[in-house]
Amino acid sequence: MKEIDFIERVLQDAAAFVRREYARRSEVEVSSKADPTDLLTQVDLAVQDMIVNRIADTFPGDIVAAEERGLDRDPEDPACRCWILDPIDGTQNFVRGLFPTFGISLAFAVEGRAVAGGVSLPIATDLFLAERGAGAFRNGERLRVSEVDSLAVARIEVDFASPRERRETLDRAAELICEAGQIRCTSSTVVGMCSVASADMDAFVHVAMEPYDYAASQLIAEEAGGKATRLDGSPLLLFDGKRGAVVSNGLLHDALLAILRRRTETMLPSGI
Amino acid sequence: MKEIDFIERVLQDAAAFVRREYARRSEVEVSSKADPTDLLTQVDLAVQDMIVNRIADTFPGDIVAAEERGLDRDPEDPACRCWILDPIDGTQNFVRGLFPTFGISLAFAVEGRAVAGGVSLPIATDLFLAERGAGAFRNGERLRVSEVDSLAVARIEVDFASPRERRETLDRAAELICEAGQIRCTSSTVVGMCSVASADMDAFVHVAMEPYDYAASQLIAEEAGGKATRLDGSPLLLFDGKRGAVVSNGLLHDALLAILRRRTETMLPSGI
Fold it and tell me: Each residue of A55-98: pLDDT tens digit?
């Protein structure tokens, strides 16, 4: 089976499961991980187990890097066939929120580079798919980034991340926040990056992402004509350590890098 | 007809219209108002006209304050029977966005105080209703704010507002942004305030709101057990000029006022 077809099928099945669980989410067991706002549910684990098992059945020998159960490690051999999975990106929004702004992300990489990827937004029933060199699609419709070329009217998603990265986010992005046309924060990387691909947002900024957050949606954004780099403008690699990124429609990219380079002193009164 | 029953019926009809227009939103004509990011569509105008006409038919002589067509003025007689309408709160999100985070807001006030209010989120098919002293409901189900009492784990919606209020927002909220458990920004006041009422968020902060933004959802949040004040802790009044507000589950309110009182010097490099 082709990897992109596998991604499509497995994301459709996982989305159907997540829709059922979302309908009864008040009963779902929630625990926390690194800090009290870093949530984990039974649904994250069940989705990961289901997809990891399907990969093992269909592509035996392939490596899996995934957010939960200790699989959050880069592969030892960077050239290997590797699957990168985030079972629920935006778990907080799954647990609480008027709008279901979370997604399931699965990418396939060889030689340390994503070549196929998919993101499902289960409740919106949106499925984003991309293959390297073959374009990006939402529910079968070809995607193209926006043509907005001025920061003053641009819709920018700034991910405020976890509390320990909040100060860094403000220092980096305060000037951008003041100058952009609009600021949004759904706090789901896949929602932010797929929004750039679908031209619903013009750019997305995050100071500290993990590979499972962006493996699939970086490919989707790039295949829709967008640009993704580290905050300093250098290439955003897949197994790259936890670091920041700018994803844009391309037209805004240089202006975004320039404004993010000028760090801000945020003089907090209590000296946080 | 009782005012709350009128609100329920007219919001259901308006929501059905907005759902049809949303399905063909790529064809909707968009213009801008005060600044290039302050959008107006045919749909805002059509919804306002429909509701204003229905009020005139059902409650002749009542005053209407509404966002569009020059009706954005406080009534001359503050004691009058008055309807306060925002036909689409979150027009930007109506025009662009992966998730339909916008709403229709209608409140009825006497003696300058909202006594009945409703908010429709048309695509989510959620209808929030509240009468003073009789509780708040979503789709008939009684609402109760959250019980989160620590900022470190609280979900806070910070509305970054229009570009001209962005610096004030950062100066006010930078410390809160650093200390809160999570930060979100949908940039729809009614979504933010109804999220507090439904316990999906723990608080909402905005530095510059108009009465049509909050007339209905303030009542909904308060009737769900929440608290709404100006940023200095004094009562948030209906015809109050454009000013800021904090809406919370009550438990977080004093901590929020204290942290918002400590203004931050955001030292932007270009001296914006």
Answer: 999 999 999 999 888 787 888 887 899 999 999 999 999 999 99
Give the number of domains in chain B: 2
Give tens-digit pLDDT for A183-242.
Answer: 999 999 999 999 999 999 999 999 999 889 999 999 999 999 999 999 999 999 998 878
Q: Tokens 């669980």 — which residue?
A: A21
- State whether B156 and B36 are in the same domain: no
Q: Which domain CATH number covers A210?
A: 3.40.190.80
Put simply, the answer to whether B262 touches A269 (Cβ < 8 Å) is: yes
Q: Which residue has the higher pLDDT, B266 or A32?
A: A32
Q: Is A264 in Cβ contact with B266 (below 8 Å)? A: yes
User: What is the mean pLDDT of the segment spanning B38-55?
Assistant: 92
Evaluate if residue A266 carries a pLDDT over 70.
no
Cβ of A183 within 8 Å of Cβ of B180? The answer is no
* Residue of A181, A184, A268 with shortest CB distance to B163: A181
Mark yes or no for CB contact B160/A170 under 8 Å: no
Partner residue opposite A178 with nearest CB, options B37, B92, B166: B166
Residue B43 contacts residue B23 (beta carbons within 8 Å): no
| Whole-number Å distance between alpha carbons of A18 and A126 | 13
Which residues does residue A235 pair with via DSSP β-bridges, in sequence order? A229
Q: Does residue A218 contact residue A235 with C-beta atoms inside 8 Å?
A: no
Q: From CA A209, how far away is CA A134, in angstroms rounded?
A: 26
Output A265 or A217, whichever has higher pLDDT: A217
Query: Could you tell me which residues come within 8 angstroms of residue A102 by beta carbon, excluding any fewer than 6 positions away?
Result: A88, A89, A90, A91, A93, A94, A121, A122, A188, A191
**Could you say which of B37, B170, B200 has the minimum Cβ distance to residue A97?**
B200
* pLDDT 10s digits, B214-262: 999 999 999 999 999 999 999 999 988 788 999 999 999 999 999 999 8
Q: Which residue of B has its CA nearest to A164?
A: B178
Q: Which residues contact A94 (CB under 8 A, 6 or more apart)?
A: A22, A25, A41, A43, A88, A100, A102
Residues B138 and B163 in one domain: no
Q: Which pTM does this prediction carry?
A: 0.95
Domain of residue A24 covers 3-142
B191 or B30, which is more confident: B191
Q: Residue A160 is nearest to which of B177, B263, B268, comparing CB atoms?
A: B177
Chain A residues closer than 8 Å to B272 by CB? 175, 178-179
Compute the average pLDDT of residues B117-127.
98
**Per-chain mean pLDDT for chain B:** 93
The pair of structure tokens assigned to A85 is 């999975």
ipTM score of the complex?
Answer: 0.94
Residues in chain A with CB shorter than 8 Å from the CB of B255 are: none
Nearest CA in chain A to B191: A98
Q: Which residue of A has its CA nearest to B123?
A: A99
Q: For the domain that residue B114 is a member of, what is the CATH number? A: 3.30.540.10
